[in-house]
Design brief:
It contains 19 helices and 13 strands. The protein is an alpha+beta fold and 478 residues long. It has a domain of 125 residues: Alpha-Beta Plaits (2-Layer Sandwich). It is globular and about 60 Å long. The chain starts with 13 loop residues before the first helix and ends in a 5-residue tail after the last helix.
């Protein structure tokens, strides 16, 4: 039985903190006898760069998020507010705030990242067909709006045309100031992640509603074990990493060196000493360094944490200035931890780069087919079991060489066809036929042919920024 929960202002102990994180992150297993497993819901979170396009079709800078008060030049927020009042363009409503957002008429919302990237968070859909239609409808609407202002909507893992130094941190608020200061203390990766990267995240159910802990454990484990293959297969940010070495995914390499205490995977998942996935995840959260202290006296009530203290140590030792850790502190700290699979009552799979339209469908089909079809999931787990202890290493190899790494490529060649077959076993209306067909073509064009989107984009960037810009909007080629 879980102990009575402490209030937000009471000091915590480690046992209570672990239980609270486990319950919040994983949710509950339904009481009563298990019921047959069914595919779960899907939410998508695509992010985009807005890039100016000159008369020759070349990328020409990134517009600001807010109006430039000195020059009066409008920003992305102004364009979207204007569109929201246009009967032909408006499909969302402006919600003012320190960090403004737009609520979509179809559900979900538009929010923004510190470099003015636009993020679309869909509502939760019952099937992949609905999620993809939602993504494409909103993407098409945004394309139309930004084209009126001479800009393209581009999805790539890391902006290949503009350095992070040329893109200022634009979101107000103490959280973003502290986040930038915290990451800057560790190196240049934070600026690239915050201001110059995009991803496509997929949110999938744990399956606790079926009353079988085995389903939750299997879905959690496959989501983590397949993460390196997602990184390798769905990379769109080739180029030089922070050390100048050529890599397949610059975005992945940024995350890999950003702050290992809050990224990557729960250590217990890799070394086999774990038992309860929810408690293993709780340990990962507790052993992450504090990013900030929410206390009076600092700018906007936040003090950037630069002392290397983990949340576990804060509980055990306290802090000379900021006192004892409370449940409210833990609740906020949980929002600052970003492993490759983030547990939020559902699974947020974070390993893919930002994906052009034609790659989004295969990504959704393969991940939902692999997680939600029991046969595909269990066959894949059997194939990946021998590699569980080297999960972090595979993730690093995937970021560096992608599908040009023979071990990663070999695993992708086994796992992704299983995922497609699993998708075909799900209910007939779960996917659009066009997405299933696109996935089969994707596997033939890339994975089974020993190629990848990253290699294709790398070749384009070497000869034509214009062609690479077109690729980032759609994906061209045979």
């Amino acid at each position: 039985m879980v102990a009575p929960m402490k209030t937000h202002t009471q000091a915590l102990d480690v046992r209570t903190a672990r239980q609270w994180i486990a319950a919040r992150a994983f949710g509950a297993i339904a009481a009563g006898p298990p019921t047959p497993e069914q595919p779960g819901g899907i939410g998508l979170e695509p992010e985009y760069f807005v890039v100016r396009v000159d008369a020759l079709g070349q990328p020409g800078g990134r517009p600001r998020l807010f109006r430039n008060e000195a020059t009066g030049e409008a920003g992305i927020i102004d364009w979207l507010r204007e569109a929201s009042e246009d009967p032909e363009l408006g499909f969302f409503e402006y919600v003012p705030g320190v960090v403004p957002r737009f609520e979509l008429s179809c559900g979900g919302q538009l929010t923004f990242e510190p470099g003015a990237q636009v993020e679309h968070s869909t509502r939760v859909h019952e099937n992949a067909a609905g999620a993809m239609e939602d993504l494409e409808r909103v993407r098409a609407g945004l394309v139309s709006i930004f084209e009126r202002h001479g800009c393209a909507l581009v999805a790539l893992g890391l902006d290949p045309w503009h350095k992070a130094e040329s893109v200022p941190q634009q979101l107000p608020g103490g959280r973003y100031r502290s986040q930038a200061e915290f990451y800057a203390s560790k190196g240049p990766a934070g600026a690239k992640m915050m201001r110059n990267s995009t991803s496509l995240q997929i949110n999938l159910d744990f399956g606790g509603q079926f009353g079988d802990p085995k389903i939750v454990e299997e879905r959690w484990r496959i989501a983590n074990l397949v993460s390196p293959l997602i990184t390798a297969t769905f990379s769109t940010s080739p180029g030089a990493d922070l050390c100048g070495s050529p890599v397949a995914s610059r975005r992945a390499r940024v995350w890999q060196v950003l702050d290992p205490s809050r990224t990557g995977f729960p250590p217990a998942l890799q070394d086999g000493r774990g038992g309860d996935p929810a408690l293993d995840y709780a340990d990962k959260v507790l052993d992450a360094e504090l990013m900030l202290y929410r206390r009076d006296g600092g700018p906007e009530g936040m003090h950037t944490a630069l002392d290397g203290l983990t949340f576990r140590r804060w509980i055990e030792e306290g802090h000379a200035t900021h006192g004892s850790a409370t449940l409210e502190d833990l609740e906020y700290h949980l929002t600052t931890v970003f492993p490759e699979v983030r547990a939020r009552g559902f699974m947020e799979l974070r390993s893919a780069d930002g994906l052009p339209r034609e790659l989004a469908g295969p990504f959704v089909v393969l991940l939902s087919g692999l997680v939600y079809d029991p046969q595909a999931r269990r066959e894949a787990l059997a194939l990946l079991a021998d590699h569980q202890h080297e999960l972090e290493d595979l993730w690093i190899r995937a970021g560096r060489a992608g599908l040009e790494d023979p071990i990663v490529a070999g695993l992708a060649g086994w796992i992704w066809p299983l995922a497609l077959e699993g998708a075909k076993r799900l209910p007939a209306d779960y996917f659009r036929l066009s997405d299933l067909e696109a996935t089969a073509a994707f596997l033939d064009r890339y994975v089974l042919d020993g190629a990848s989107p990253s290699c294709e984009l790398r070749d384009l960037l070497a000869v034509s920024p214009e062609a690479a810009l077109t690729w980032g909007r759609k994906v061209t080629g045979a």
